[in-house]
Amino acid sequence: MKKLKFVPFLVIIILFSGCMRINEVDSKSFVTAIGFDKGENYNLRFTFVFTAPSKEASKDGKSNDETIVIEAPSLYSAIEQINNFKSQMIVLTHTQTLIFSEELAKEGLSEHIYMLVRSNHFRPNTYVCVTDKTSMEFLEKINPVQTYHLEKYFQLLFNKMTSGKKGDLYLYDSYFGLNRAGKSSVLPYCAIKDITIKETEEEASENSSEEPTESETIPGKFAENTDDFAINTTAGHSISKSENTAEIQGVAVLKEGKLTTVLGKGEATCLQLITNSMPNTYFTLSNPYNPDKMITCYITNSDEAKIKVKCDDIPRISIRITLEGDFTEVGKDDTYIRNPHLFEDYFETKTEESINKFLSKIKKLDCDICAFSEVAKSEFLTVDKWEEYNWYDKFASAEFDVSVDLTIRTFGELSQKNDRG
Fold it and tell me: Is there a contact between 178 and 185 (Cβ–Cβ < 8 Å)?
């Protein structure tokens, strides 16, 4: 009976513990992406993309994202202005991507990154990237296919790029990259494609009547940029045709928080190989024994890259990269199937040449984006000795020794046994 006396009190507690501050999902407006550009009337122009959380938003197969462009002195002053005409409460904690224009990146992103990191409204794993023109144009023209929400599109797209252990894809990675000594970091580079396949039947017939050029008349000659390692395309310049003209390819190099240069596909691959951030991928190279044909191989990392640094009068950096591969396309030529070491030697040579060119470029830029300094620090017993060595002045004269080891996994040849009598 004593226990029953507590029942009324429990009922009262439950009744008075109502949801006074609860907000329905439909009363909130979730920000998926924010674009940062230079403004005309104010310092900055912001492009907000809002995604409706309701299932009704995509029942007809179309995106119901809302885009608002506004100029303001700061991000939060822009939000206050949006509150004057947008009824729902603006939520930033689900922001998937932050996009900065190339023009703004050249002036410097440090202050913007610092502000975003110190805010408790943004998640540490928010993606950060740089676009070639304006973020407003990029976000207005992006048109995800088969993915109705922009939030899901960015999530799937960037997830394919984050299989490695290192990289500056996230907001917090960008922050620490800008704060470490040397202050060199990279961000993904995105753009709207300006080269598309538009050839009509009339254009095709006109082209067929033209006389072949010299390169077309010489059999067995590929252009020098047909090998994947030599193709150094950046976002916006791939030759393709799609309903979605947006793409992410290459990386933007930041030094002291300012955009220095943009690395293309081939150079970005070299960076990934060195920093253990390359996803499993396909490589296509011309066949040296039969230049009319191409060879495709599926490459994976069999081990982390081994980096050693000797801090002599000039830094001497040793890089050992270990890969495994499977033949995906070799055609009728079974030379490499019978002798895989021939392709291994060829691939290793091509890869080492590409990596050395890449390293020569970042030396000239004086940007240690591979973070060799983190390895070099272990050579010194004290901070004073490390600072006395003056790594960041000597990096431009560093010498590299690059070695790539590829092992092809072979499973024998295809054969057919004829048992017919």
Answer: yes
* pLDDT tens track for 290-348: 777 788 888 888 888 999 999 989 999 999 999 998 888 776 666 777 778 888 888 89
Domains belonging to the chain, first-starting first, are: 280-412 (3.30.300.210)
Residue of 284, 406, 283 whose CA lies nearest to 345: 406
Going by DSSP bridges, is the β-strand pair 294-301/89-91 parallel, antiparallel, or unpaired?
A: unpaired
Contact call for residues 166 and 173 (beta carbons, < 8 A): no
Q: What is the pTM of this model?
A: 0.79
pLDDT at site 221: 35
Q: Which of 251, 248, 250 is nearest to 33 (CA)?
A: 248
**Other beta carbons less than 10 A from residue 59's beta carbon:** 10
Report pLDDT digits (tens) over 167-209: 556 777 777 777 666 667 888 899 888 765 654 344 444 444 4
Q: What is the largest CA-CA distance in the chain?
A: 104
∠ Cα 216 219 225 (to 5°):
65
* Residue with token string 């009337």: 41
358 close to 253: Cβ distance less than 8 angstroms: no
Q: Which tens digit of pLDDT belongs to each residue from 231-266? A: 777 787 777 777 788 888 888 998 888 899 998 888
* 110/256 Cα distance (integer angstroms): 8
Q: What own/partner pairs with CB < 8 Å and gap ≥ 24 does 220-223 have?
A: 220/290, 220/291, 220/292, 221/291, 222/286, 222/291, 222/294
What's the Cα-to-Cα distance from 150 to each of 47, 52, 125, 156, rounded to whole Å?
14, 10, 17, 10
Which is nearest to 327 in space by CA: 292, 287, 282, 269? 282
